[in-house]
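Researcher: We plan to redesign the surface later, but first we want a full-length starting point. Tokens attached.
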């Protein structure tokens, strides 16, 4: 069994000329750290295990790597944690096609679950998010840094290009994009969001961009104290984008299966709350009332609407038709939908 305290045995330094960490690798790690807001997942691992790395990672010369190795192996932590950290360093230094990290893991009998999670975090630090999730969503793993992983995916995965570059180099079939990775990760891991309102809202905005309906059912599943705020945020997100997206999302919004309580929140937000300044807020309430068969209420809320034309149809024309159809029932309040049961 390989002695992890033996630096030369771990890194095979006697077979390597020059620095064990290539300068290009060091520069890439530093650039990725900046991209990820100044903290890599390896930095988080070292901090969680109380290994003081200081300036040593990434090691720009062999002396730094030797010092980092010594700090890891001398730390009062379990051997499998030490082995996991060294496994990560070997993935850095040996190159992606080398078998050295895997050979090391086998030689020290590193449990497979640690092997898998380190590979996932290493890919996260390399901005290879698709590959990262193949490991981090493995059913045998307990979630590791789940909130941080989701936050990084929300901030970076939808614009990720490194995965595609990585896949081209290895002749893998390219995916159509990474915009669904945060959703896939959330569904697989279910990181807690209620304790982090900022992350919850960021994920909800992302979800609303994918599907208004899906975001609505997500909001309904959240704690009661968050329910109304998320519904109002959904209305805002659906009605705020560019005109083409707004029309499509507002149509989806109008058709949501709202409860009576949610219906009240919806109308309060658009007629009396902050949503009243949104484009076509009153129009949306009128359209919602029409869609749910509340025709007299639709006429009432739309009495001040006029002039806006869509496909040669204006609200004035709609209101005239409704008023003519309702007759006296519109003012007497006796109109109701037919009961077909």
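Model: Full-length starting sequence:
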């Amino acid at each position: 069994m390989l002695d992890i305290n033996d630096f030369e045995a771990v890194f095979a330094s006697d077979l390597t000329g020059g620095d064990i960490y290539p300068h290009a690798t060091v520069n890439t790690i530093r650039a990725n750290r900046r991209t990820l807001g100044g903290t890599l997942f390896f930095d988080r691992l070292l901090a969680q295990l109380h290994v003081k790395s200081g300036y040593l990672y990434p090691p720009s010369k062999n002396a730094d790597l030797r010092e980092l190795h010594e700090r890891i192996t001398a730390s009062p932590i379990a051997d499998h944690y030490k082995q996991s950290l060294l496994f990560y360093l070997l993935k850095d230094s040996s190159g992606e096609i080398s078998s050295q990290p895997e050979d090391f893991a086998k030689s020290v009998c590193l449990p497979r679950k640690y092997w898998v999670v380190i590979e996932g975090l290493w890919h996260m630090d390399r901005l290879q998010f698709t590959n990262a999730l193949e490991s981090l969503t493995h059913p045998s793993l307990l979630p590791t840094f789940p909130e941080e992983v989701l936050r990084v995916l929300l901030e970076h995965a939808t614009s990720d290009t490194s995965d595609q570059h990585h896949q081209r180099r290895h002749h893998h079939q390219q995916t159509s994009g990474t915009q669904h990775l945060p959703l896939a990760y959330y569904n697989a891991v279910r990181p807690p969001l209620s304790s982090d309102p900022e992350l919850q809202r960021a994920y909800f905005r992302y979800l609303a961009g994918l599907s208004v309906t899906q975001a609505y059912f997500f909001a309904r599943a959240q704690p009661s104290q968050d329910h109304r705020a998320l519904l109002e945020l959904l209305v805002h997100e659906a009605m705020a984008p560019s005109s083409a997206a707004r029309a499509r999302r507002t149509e989806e919004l109008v058709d949501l299966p709202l409860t009576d309580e949610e219906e009240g929140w919806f109308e309060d937000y658009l007629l009396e709350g902050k949503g009243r300044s949104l484009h076509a807020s009153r129009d949306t309430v009128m359209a919602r009332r029409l869609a749910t068969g509340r025709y007299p209420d639709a006429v009432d809320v739309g009495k001040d609407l006029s002039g806006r034309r869509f496909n040669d149809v204006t609200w004035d024309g709609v209101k005239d038709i409704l008023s003519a159809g309702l007759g006296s029932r519109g003012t007497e309040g006796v109109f109701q939908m037919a009961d077909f049961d």
